[in-house]
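Subgroup meeting minutes
Present: P.N., E.W., G.H.
Scribe: E.W.

1. P.N. recapped why we're keeping a running log of single-chain structure predictions: easier to compare across weeks, and new members can see raw inputs and outputs side by side.
2. G.H. added today's entry (242 aa).
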Amino acid sequence: MSRTLVVGDIHGGFKALQQVLERAEVTQSDQLIFLGDYVDGWSESFQIIQFLIELSEKQECIFIKGNHDAWCEDWLALGQNPDIWLFNGGKSTVESYADYLPEERDIHLEFFQRMKNYHIDDQNRLFIHAGYASMHGPEKEVYSSNYRWDRTLWETAVAMDKKLEKNSELYPKRLLLYKEIFIGHTPTLDIGITTPANKANVWNMDTGAAYTGALSMMDINSKEFWQSDPLPSLYPDEKGRN
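Output recorded in log:
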């Protein structure tokens, strides 16, 4: 039975990715949707990108682009390494690429360039790294950077009155556009939750792997999920983004 599995922000934690793939007993018949932020944080950003390129040759994978991936793409393409990126985990990514060949970097750059801003499946479920501000959905977004940076969608879902019915005038119009919305970007740890968090029809898969949390993977149909060990225990000599 093939499944569709969604994966939260990895942030250079290759060991965590290997753990969740193992714990979920992922097979080549499963479809994998990655919500972005593959790099920046723990020390194995290069290894993750290399692994994902190879994985996508064996099974169906969809790769969404996160804000950290956009930074890394600019660095690979143009040599740009702004302080804000280096300060927010980019330094570990640059270090992970130190010993690799120009042709390997070129293949990685192509991989970043092919990533999607968002994906909508045949059941009208949206997969996006951060969110969108337009009331008409991401297709009508004026600023494409919102796909990778918007936190207002999640904040809206978190702050909503749980008693609100979908037919209420007050129900946020943005959330009515999709059956379900799967995001990363804003760690669930911010609201004291260590597992994939569901607010309204939004599922947040970023369980803080860049920081003190674990990496999470979920079956989008059954909502069964698997988690790695907390990342600091997998990389005891590193700080990640802490």
